[in-house]
Each structure stands twice: as structure tokens, then as C-alpha cells.
Write a structure and sequence with these properties.
203 residues, DNA-binding, homotetramer, Tetracycline Repressor, domain 2, TetR family transcriptional regulator (chains A, B, C, D), 0% strand, mainly alpha
Chain lengths: 203, 203, 203, 203
DNA sequence: AATGAATGAGTCTTCATTCAT
DNA sequence: AATGAATGAAGACTCATTCAT
């Protein structure tokens, strides 16, 4: 469909050249139509980019949900590893969307900024909720704060992984993936092993 | 000096709007001159941005060197913590340079791309060299490969920290800093504690 | 048609001001449109001028062909006179094209230079071929070299005529036309009269 | 001297790019100074070009005078030949001046136009005067009108020669030179031989 | 659903010129 | 005698957008 082609072309151009650099005429060319025709589908450039950005965010959400539905019953170490793996997979397989995300994270265009921060809020809430219930399923005695901190470490390590995808090649990314899982496992071991954090360590 | 003002203005505009979005007329206005005057100092836009990018990279290098000269004699945990702190400090204090860096990391302008990858190469070599000698000073028995791996973990965690600076607010960044130091310390303890990696574990 | 108007306007501006002096905004104004609209029809200034130059050359060729088709059966003196007349007519009736030609003959723009020299080559070959067959029709016994030399004289005198059109007024040009025909006729008489050049003057 | 260098540079640039195409900064560069310095020697661009144009015209006049002073006593055929030779020599040896002349002959800049037409007027008067007296010296009985016509033919053939220099290479120019002398000699022979033009060849 | 033709606003850049030094 | 620094005006060209078809 032409509209989809336009959104793909918009993402691709935006990811390479940013908002100002993504021109309607290049987007049209990539979609195989003439610039004037874009206006049949979108009111203007901002609207087109807005939809393109939304598509990127939706896609990301869908990717992460997928993993949860498949792996939420695994033990925490496996779950964290799988999620790290998915982060890497999603961002390497959708390089243009990832680049676009990197560009727009600090976008001065207020609409995009709001779109992103709304998404990050929603995504974060969802992630915390999912992780909390998954962790609790396997470790019902962990304190709320401990779980919360664990999730925070997971997110922090995930950030390292994300930026690694942006700047490294395939080999470097794989190494990072191992490092991420290792650091997380080490952290989890320390938390669970210490015992002090368990709610009722009944005797 | 006018030329310096232009470079500052270029960094600022580039960090907000990207290459295409940073206009000569805005840069000129920010530097307090007229657009035509830019061409007395720089051959064209690309050259101006090139010098601006170089200034960012030089500044980053200078910041990291500074820390090394002050802290290279501290024990590894302190050194890593200080370096993490410096990464955070440099990037929070120079927000526009950091945003610019994020934008240009995937720049489609080949000159900029080359500039960045050349820098990353140089910086990485320097960092590895410095860290290697610092670590070796305190742990002369560590094997080459172990040191190398430790540095890799340091860089990986540093990436998480960097991306955190980009997307988080002050509070979030401070939390990340703690997490970074904690994860690194935990990793180091594990490595050093294991003993198996020491070259001559003789008695 | 807008495109044709643009080419006319381009020729006119180019003939007055040369390549650098012919501005897109003046050309647009003369064609009754806005400067930006030129780019719908032509890729850029060079392309527009290139097409304008080509139009001039095509027009010149068409003019000369016309005369040949009408007069090729006349005797040589009449033919030469008619051709001289046509040279004068074409260049006086298309003053701007003639001025443009004078300017571009030494153009430093390599594309234009090539266009001209390609044309001169083609035109010259055609002219020689046509004249040769016309002359031979009336004087089958003339040697190849003699015909060739006669054509050379014709071209040389034509050059004087051409430059006369450029620098003289109407009266001066008419005087030149008489002179051209007179000199050529005199030359032809001498060649034909001498007899020595006839191939087989035996019986 | 810098001023002379500037005039040379101006001629050279003007000959290649025309009035609008000859830029002050290029001229300055060719003269080995900075653009601002031009204004120490010339009030503005028009003044500089005006002086450059004048230099070209003066040089041409000097060249033609030279030949006259050396050859005015030769018989008419030799004189005409020598003058043709000088025309060719002057214009081949001063290619940039010749190109400049071709460009400016139809200049829309009114000052230049006037300069040229004033010069052509002066030069023509001088030429006619010189030729008349030279011809009369050898052929005192020729009628005024006959001399005048002969000079006209000389000028006409000279025009062909001039344009030949502009468009031909060395070999072609030499051929033209032969043709010019031949045509002129033939014409002269016819005039002088006819006898009818001699004033009173009374006995 | 798509486009040809057109344009106002703006982009980068050049140019002739100025003026204090 | 020469220039560094600066600029208003203009140049070629791009861009998002419009509108009749």
C-alpha cells in the first residue's frame, strides 16, 4: 500500500537525515510516487513524520511484548537474558528505526518530543509491571524495593546494550550481550544469595 | 573571538537540529554576525561543522585525560568510579556537545562519519593503554586477557552510563552512576577474588 | 509553452550578458514566471543554457539546409550568392542568436565548448559535402583539390561576412554582401577560366 | 607593478568569463594581492575593466601603427599582405585580448560600448587616411572613390581573417592568410588592370 | 489516487565594496 | 601599499505546499 510505503520511506529518510534533512521529495521518490501525492495521504510533513515515529514506537512495543508472552514463565536469569537478546535482535534487525529513535530522543520538535516521552512513560510502566509480576512469581518473598532495584539494574544494563547496538558492529554487539547477561546474573545472584532481602525468611 | 563564537554557535545549532537543520543564518545570528561573514572564517558549512565536531571530540579527549592524570595512581575501584563520574560530569556539563555527538554518531555525511570513527579509534586505543598500565600497577600478576576483559566491561558499563545521561534527568543519572560503580566493583571483586587469573599464584 | 519561453528568454539573456551575466531571475521574469519554476523544466542553469545553445545551433542548421534545398541546382555563382545572402539574413534576423554564438565560441564552460565544436564539425562536414556535389554537378571535370579549395575560399569569405554582421549596421552589411559575392565570383572565374584545373580538357 | 598586474589579470579574466564573470577576487588572486587592495588602484570594478579595455585597444592601435611605419613605402600588394600578416600576428600573440574584444564588441555595458565605438571610429579614420596616402603614393591617378572602395575590400577581407583567428587553429589561420592576400591581390589587379579607374591617364 | 505546474519562503554561497589599521 | 574583518545585495537552488485536473 502506498501509505505504508510512505511511512517506511519516511522512517528511512528520517533515520539518515533527521527531521529537516528528510525531504518530502526524497520520501516520495523512495515510495515511488510524486511529492504532490503525499498530501493525499498526510496533511503535511509533520503529520507524516508523526505517524512514522508512532510506527517505530509501536513496533518496538510489539517486539518486547512478544518476548514477554513467550518467556514470562522462565526463571529470572533466563528471562533477563531473553529480554537482552530481544533488545539486541530488535534493534539490529531494524537499524533504521533504531537510528531514528536515537535522533528523535532529543528532538527540538515539541510534538515528537511529547510523543517519545509519552511512549517512554507507557513502556516503562508496562515493563516494570511485567517484570515485577514475573520476578514475584519465582521469588515471592522478595521485597518490593528489592524488585524495583533489580528492574532498575536491568534497565541500566539494557541501556548499555542499546548504545552498543548503535555504535558497534556485529561482533562487538554479541560480546556486549554476553557481558550484559553476565553482569545481570551476577547482580541477581548477589541479591538472592544475600538472603537479607527476602521478606519472610521463615525458619 | 568571532571564529570561536561561530564554533560554539555551530555546536549548539547542530546539537539541536542536526546537520541540515543547523542553518548558517541561525549560526551567524547566535554568533552576533551576518551570514556572509561566516565565509571569511570557514570555506563552507561542511567545513564549519567539521571544525565544530572536532572541537567536541578534542574537548572530550581533554576531559578524559584530565581525570587520568589526576587519578591514575588510585586503586582500580576508585579509578573506575572516578572515570564513570567524569563521563557523567563531562556529558551533563556539556549537554549540547553530547547531543551533537549522539546525532553525528550515525551521520550520513561521510566526512563527519570518518572524523568520528577516527576519533573513536584513537580514543579507544588511548583508553585501553592507560587503563592497562593503571590496572597492572596495582595488580601486576593479572593476565593480559583478564585485563583486557575488565576494560571491556568498563567500556560496556560506561556506554550504559552515557546513554543514561542522554535520556535521564539529574536524579536518574546519579542513580545510574551508583549502579555503574556497583556493577563494576562487583565484577572486579569476582575477577580478583577468583585467583585463578593471577599469573603466578605460587606462594 | 513555458519551456519554449524559457529557452527564448535564456538565449536573449545569454546573448546580452554571457553565461555568468544571464541570471535565472531575469530569465524567469522574461518568461513570465517565478525563478523557482524554472527548475520544474530544467535541472539547473547549465542545462537550461545547454538547451538554449542547442536551439541556436539547430536553428542555424535548419536555415542553411533550407537554402540548399531551394538553390542547389543553381549555377555556382548564384549558389554562392544565395548562401551568402542566407548567412546575412539568418544572422540579421536572429540578432540575439548571433550574439550568443559570438559569446559562446570561446566559452570556458566545457560543456558549451564541446557542444559548439561538435556542431561546427557536423556543420562543416555537411556543408563541404553539399557544396562538393553541387559544384560537381555543374563542373564535373574539376579536380577534387580544386573543389576543395574553392569551398575553403567560400568559407573564408563567409567568415568576413559573418563578422561584418556582428559589427556593422544594415548599410555596411549590404555593402559586405556585394563584396563577398564579387570576390567569390572573381575567384571562381579565375579558377574556371584558367582551364588548367579541368580534369580532361582533351576532346 | 601591481597596477599593471591587475590590468593584465583583468584582461585575462574578462576574456574568459565576460564582465559579470570576471570577479574582483579572481582578478586579485591572479595579481597576487587581496581583493580589498584593488580599491587602492581603481575606484571600482567598472573603472578597472574600463582601463583594461583601453589597454587592449591601445595595444591594438600600437601594433597596427608599427606596421605602417615600417611598410608604408612598399607597393600596395606588399602593404596589404603585411597588414594582413600583422592582424594575424597581433591577434594570435594576444589571444586573451582578442577574446576580450570579441566579447565586448556587443557589451550591454554602455561605457564599454562607447569606448569600443569611439575606438573603432578613430581607428577606422586613421586606417583610411594611412591607406589612402600609401595607395596614392604608388598610384597617384586612382580616383578617390576607387581608393575608398579598395580600402573597403581590404577591411572586409581583414574581417574574415580576424574571425578566422578566433575560430581556427594555427594551420587554418595560415591558410586564411594566404587566401586573404590572394583575394586582395586579385582584386587589386582587376582594379588597376582595368584602367578605367585611373583618373586621367592622358598622354 | 495521483500528478503537472507553480510558487513563497528560505538555504547556502558569492560578490563588490567599505573601513579601520 | 595592503589587508583583515565585515556586510548588503544578489545568485543559484531547494523545499513544503497548493491546486486544477
Amino acid at each position: 500500500m502506498t501509505k505504508d510505503k510512505l511511512i517506511r520511506a519516511a522512517i528511512n529518510n528520517f533515520s539518515k537525515y533527521g527531521y529537516q534533512g528528510a525531504t518530502m521529495s526524497n520520501i516520495a521518490k523512495d515510495a515511488g510516487i510524486k511529492p504532490a501525492s503525499i498530501y493525499y495521504f498526510f496533511e503535511n510533513k509533520e503529520e507524516l513524520i508523526r505517524e512514522a515515529v508512532q510506527a517505530i514506537l509501536n513496533h518496538h512495543f510489539a517486539s518486547m511484548k512478544e518476548t514477554f508472552y513467550e518467556k514470562e514463565r522462565e526463571n529470572v536469569n533466563v528471562l533477563f537474558s531473553e529480554l537482552f537478546g530481544k533488545i539486541v535482535l530488535h534493534h539490529t534487525e531494524n537499524e533504521d528505526e533504531t537510528k531514528a529513535y536515537v535522533i528523535m530522543v532529543n528532538s527540538p520538535i515539541s510534538n515528537i518530543k511529547k510523543q517519545i516521552s509519552d511512549y517512554l512513560h507507557t513502556y516503562n510502566n508496562w515493563l516494570v509491571e511485567q517484570l515485577t509480576s514475573s520476578i514475584r512469581r519465582h521469588h515471592p518473598d522478595l521485597e518490593e524495593a528489592t524488585i524495583s532495584e533489580m528492574i532498575d539494574y536491568f534497565i541500566f544494563i539494557g541501556n548499555g546494550l542499546f548504545w552498543g547496538v548503535v555504535i558497534h558492529d556485529k561482533a562487538g554487539i554479541q560480546r556486549n550481550l554476553t557481558q550484559a547477561s553476565h553482569l545481570m546474573a551476577q547482580y541477581v545472584t548477589q541479591i538472592l544469595g544475600s538472603g537479607q532481602n527476602e521478606k519472610q525468611q521463615g525458619h
